[in-house]
Write a structure and sequence with these properties.
The complex is a heterodimer. Chain A is mainly α. In chain A, 72% of the residues lie in helices and 1% in strands. Chain A has 13 helices and two strands, in the order αααααβααααβαααα. Chain B has one domain. Chain B has a two-stranded antiparallel ribbon. The chains are: A mainly alpha, B mainly alpha.
């Protein structure tokens, strides 16, 4: 077992053990905090697929995060009011159905955005993904049917067959399982022919084209899959907070997702997990000390970018196998 | 009456465009010369607005405030260039995005620390208060016309600076071959600081000018920053001419879309529905225009690097 695998296992166990312990001690707040870590990590695992493996610096993933959230919010609201969605299709409060819808919606929106953005590269790509995310953000703000600027509140958490989702620990376990599934998917993709092509597209698109694989198609699929995972995280996040609002789609959120990956270690399997743990810890500890915690977060982030490249996993487990 | 309203909205669009040009010109110059993507440009806009509002409140003069906004934005710009940005030129875009994102957090939270969460207000200077009559009836705010005038003056000034002065020659040389002008004995470090401070001053000027129209508050820079990104993507990154054309396109399309779409939709559906749907669609319009332009010209209308 390599050193990185051992550390990954430790992170996975820590993330599972801490909330179990907290629940045993009757501290549901910490279980919710851990669920926040897990859901943010899941969103960042999605982005890590595009950013870490494919080198696609998307500054618009908050859009997919928010879309997933709105899918959960809109379906639950319709189901609560017993209104059909459109054309008599009934709404639902069943989590699995909501997840599938969120994933499909995120993928369907990501395809045209990706198709246009991936015609460009470098700075253009960053700015265009940001611009498209802002477009969806402003649409959410100015469309009054689902709360507009105020967002939507979910009166009860959606249902999962056989689980009491209203309690913090069962909901944490659901999210944890989703995160592990996404990490497994990331590992499988990374090792597959598709993953090799994607990493080759990052390193040298021209060479990849020379051996007969079109980098554009590979990148587009990766972008869509990445958006789908982030969309799933958005649906879970909406249920966690029982609220979805435009702020989930703001450019600030997109920035935070990138920050999570960099804090943990770009392109590494558990990078987003480690990053989300540090981020929520910062937020909680610094936020408890000072109202101005973002100021210090900025300073820390600046220090990491300028002086400590490779993130926490880079620090703990040395250079990655590839790159 | 409709003609007057149309002219008024066109002028509003032009005023927004001019303001976006002030932002986009700095961004595109910094990208063109140093190859740096600067997310913190919106914070410099905010700094300009805060400096102008604070100094104008203390001295009672908008004009001193305006000078203060230029000085503050250029000063902060020069400081962050020397302290942070300078280390990022050789890094990839990811590091640049993250570091300037961190700068936004620091500058926004720092501004909230210094000035509090309540917005400041800035009055239009007495000289520019009032309105001018428009052809076809109606009136137009003199101050907004003055902003358009300032924008045109800056565009001409930048053109003269870049095409006719020694500094402009160095900037153009820096755009085409950085290492070569270093080898020819030009002090690249100073040149970069000057260009960054120049871009910062333009952003600060935009912030101060707009500060008299809107409230001055933390976070005012980000929406403008993202519009300025759309502008330089449309215009072609690195091109000042592209920034000007893109800014006018974005300003006019956005304003006219908000003005015309609801009334156009009202022809086909009930008025209340038309207003909400029209507003929602209008907020997306410039991004659709951007997507269309990129579909045909992936590197913008006037790309400097093609």
């Amino acid at each position: 077992m390599s050193r990185e695998t051992t550390i990954n296992l430790l992170f996975a166990l820590l993330l599972l053990g801490a909330p179990l312990l907290a629940a045993g001690m009757g501290e549901p707040f910490y279980v919710t905090l851990a669920t926040r870590v897990v859901v943010l990590a899941l969103a960042a695992v999605g982005l890590n697929l595009a950013l870490g493996l494919g080198g696609l610096l998307s500054f618009g993933h908050a859009a997919f995060f928010g879309l997933g959230g709105y899918v959960a919010g809109i379906l639950a609201t319709h189901a609560f009011n017993a209104e059909p969605l459109i054309a008599g299709i009934p709404a639902t409060t069943s989590m699995p159905l909501i997840w599938i819808t969120a994933v499909v919606v995120a993928g369907l929106v990501a395809l045209p955005i990706g198709a246009i953005s991936l015609r460009t590269s470098g700075v253009y790509f960053i700015m265009i993904t940001l611009a498209f995310a802002q477009m969806i953000y402003y649409f959410a703000i100015s469309w009054p049917a689902y709360g507009g600027e105020d967002g939507l509140s979910l009166s009860v958490r959606n249902a999962f067959p056989g689980v009491n989702t209203a309690k913090p620990l069962p909901y944490f376990l659901i999210c944890y399982a989703a995160l592990m599934a996404a990490l497994l998917l990331f590992r499988v993709v990374e090792g597959s022919r598709f993953g090799s092509a994607l990493q080759a597209a990052r390193q040298n698109g021209t060479r990849l084209a020379a051996v007969g694989i079109e980098p554009f198609n590979i990148r587009l699929v990766a972008f869509a899959v990445s958006a789908m995972i982030t969309g799933l995280a958005g649906a879970l996040y909406a249920d966690l907070n029982r609220f979805v609002g435009p702020s989930m789609m703001s450019w600030h959120m997109s920035g935070e997702l990138i920050v999570l990956i960099i804090l943990g270690g770009k392109g590494r399997l558990f990078g987003p997990v480690a990053g989300a743990m540090i981020f929520v810890l910062f937020e909680y500890v610094l936020g408890g000390i000072t109202e101005r915690w973002q100021f210090f977060l900025g300073l820390i982030l600046l220090g990491i970018v300028l002086f400590a490249r490779g993130g926490l996993l880079g620090l703990l487990s040395g250079k990655p196998r590839h790159v | 009456m409709f003609t007057a309203l149309l002219i008024e909205q066109l002028l509003n669009g032009l005023q927004l465009g001019v303001m976006l040009f002030l932002m986009a010109a700095g961004l595109t110059l910094i990208f063109g010369v140093m190859g740096l993507i600067n997310l913190a440009h919106g914070s410099l806009y905010m700094i300009g607005a805060f400096a102008c509002a604070t100094v104008a409140a203390a001295t009672g003069s908008f004009w001193i405030g305006l000078i203060a906004s230029l000085a503050a934005a250029a000063g902060v710009g020069a400081i962050i260039e020397v302290a942070v940005i300078r280390r990022l030129y050789d890094r990839d875009h990811l590091d640049q995005v993250l570091a300037t994102f961190a700068l936004i957090l620091i500058l926004s939270e720092g501004a909230r620390w210094l000035f509090g969460s309540f917005p400041l207000y800035l009055d239009i200077p007495p000289l520019l208060q009032g309105a001018v009559p428009l052809p076809g009836g109606g009136q137009y705010q003199l101050y907004r016309l003055a902003i358009i005038g300032v924008g045109i003056a800056v565009a001409v000034g930048l053109y003269l600076l870049i095409s006719g002065t020694r500094l402009g020659m160095r900037i153009r040389a820096g755009e085409s071959d950085r290492e070569m002008i270093g080898a020819l004995g030009v002090d690249i470090g100073t040149l970069y600081t000057v260009v960054f401070a120049l871009g910062a001053a333009l952003a600060g000027l935009a912030g101060a000018l707009v500060g008299a129209l809107q409230s001055v508050q933390v976070g005012m820079g980000e929406p403008v920053l993202i519009l300025a990104f759309v502008v330089i993507v449309i215009g072609g990154i690195g091109s000042i001419k592209g920034a000007l054309v893109g800014a006018v396109i974005v300003g006019v399309v956005d304003t006219m879309g908000r003005f015309l779409l609801p009334s156009m939709l009202a022809l086909a559906m009930p008025a209340s529905q038309a207003t909400t749907i029209g507003a929602a669609l209008a907020s997306m319009l410039i991004y659709v225009v951007m997507a269309l332009i990129l579909a045909f010209r992936p590197s913008g209308l006037f790309s400097a690097q093609s």
